[in-house]
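ok so I'm stuck.
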Amino acid sequence: MNISQKTLQDLEFNTVLTHISHRCNTTLGKELALEITPKLQLEIVEKSLGETNEYLASFSSDNRIPNHGFESILEELKLLKIDNTTLELNGFKKIVVICESINAHKKFFEKFKEYYPTLHGNSLSLSYQKEIPERTNQIFDKFGEIRDSASDNLMSIRRETVGLKSKINQSFGAALQRYQAAEFLDEIRESIVDNRRVLAVKAMHRKKIKGAVLGASKTGSIVYVVPEASLAYSTQLSNLNFEEQEEIFKILNRLTNDIRPYGTVLATCQEYLRDIDIVAAKAKYALEMNGVLPKINTKREMHLRDAFHPLLFLANKTSGDATYPQTIKLEQENRIIVISGPNAGGKSITLKTIGLLQLMLQSGMLIPVHERSEVILFEKILTDIGDNQSIENHLSTYSYRLKNMNSFLKKCHDKTLFLIDEFGTGTDPELGGALAETFLEVFYEREAFGVITTHYANLKMLANDLPFMSNANMLFDAKSLAPTFQLILGQAGASFTFEVAQKNGIPYSLVNKAKKKIERGKVRFDATIVKLQKERSQMAATGSKLKEAESKARDEASRLEVLNEKTQAKLVKYQELYDQDKRMIQLGNKVNDLAEQYFIHHKKRQLVSDLIKVVEIENSKRKKKTAQVLKKEKVENKAVVEEVAKKVAVIREKKKKEKKKPTPPPAPKITLEIGYRVRLKDGKAVGSIDAIEKNKAIVNYGMFTTNVSLDQLEFVSKS
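replied:
not stuck anymore, here's the structure
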């Protein structure tokens, strides 16, 4: 994808690359991040986005991707290509780190390939690097130092070195004692000069001591001397050190030759870790700005929902300011959008947001939009944003813009996205507007996608006339004339020229005089747009209030409905109670009449007969329940009983836990001694220990004594 540097500069894409570079861990990653370019091929873009999305998901997973940090081995790889060269000790350390990192990544992605399919696919081209770590581990220890066992000759040299150092220390110690006894040494006795132990000899006794002088103190009162006995050994030690370095060089040379065939493999491993470092940096960047992976469709339809400008979002996030998202849709039936409205309303930011998000997406970066957003890929992105005056080429702003438009006309086609700010400005408004209208018609005919900002009325009218082009405006508060940073599609915006002038203190008489100097039709047109925007704002506010009122009414209706149901239930219960009481009163009156008849006539048989009739009449009114109804009631009652039993069990368990006291810690074990007062663990009588023999104690209870094992006794008190 060929994007001009001017477009990258207009959209501040290089600033994004700088942010990505700062989030890389490796030097090679930081350098390559600055060279990222947008891609055109769908497969490459989807793969790159998939890598970033999978790495981002690992941040919230317990299975974090292993560390990928490494130091560059470019110099080592160059040396491996040259015969008879030898790598330095640090070079081997860097190579081992790369091999171990590759092995860790291979093992990790094979284990979690279902979670990271794209990253796992990248690791398949690599092979486990076992030979190099195994070979280097034979040479180096865990601290990175060469082992004594690296070669037989090195082991022999180091053993001899240890023996010589011991002899040097013995001979130096003997000389130290002898000359100290003779009071030839200063109070400090000895010192270190050139990494060698030396005697601190008083200057007056210098000639009395045999050895080599290595220096003197600043005052000259002390002379530093190596004893003659140690001098011969020191010479031998220097020779051994030289031999050791020669042997180490031979070992490293052999190891270099062993690693040399793996030069190409190591280069591939380093490239893999460098690439994964950039993927990790993109994922970190996405995490900071809430980046997501939108749907990439092959249709000609782009729908950015709640899109944020990444750089503005991060800057405001740091300062604590609010960032306003934009929602914009471009499709085959609405290819070009003309945004109008007053300055400082956010038109340019909207253009930059669309362009920068497109560049980031096609560079494999997740973007800060709603997850239900949809995007498409463009072959070319053309921009004309900001002041394009060129002092070096002696071009005015308008001349430069015309040159830019000529370039647009040559490159523009149906897979182009063009973004133009203040389209047509820089010359006479009428002439510039007419030329801009012609350019826009060409872009329209070529079916290019684009967004432009303008104040020209003819461009607004053109957008209103053509079927696949539409107007939009950045909404302004009609009362305060403050921007709301909301993009409204479907309607042109007014410039609020005279209103903003009045708000900023320009006298009304001058504003009115200015209105008279221009065509009345234009004033009326602008005023009509202002009026429409005010009405739109009022309708939006009214709609918001109506929605709020509707929500409250819905809640109130729900509350009243519940209340009505409760009231109806209570009324039914009261009616049932009333009917029951009425029936009982009637039954009571009948029984009372029978009792009164019996009181007068004392006829038991008549009383019993009448009473049975009353009971039979009452039973006839009762509905006999079927076996099915009785079974249903039984099941319901059983369910109620079980539910109550469960609740009771929970309450009982809770009370048990509350009553249950924590078990006290075991008392410290006390060693029983003669004279201690004790008692049997299962008894109450207390006695004192008279004697202890072989884990048994003689316990005196006053009236008698007994012989008891110490294990059966427990301590009561000391005597």
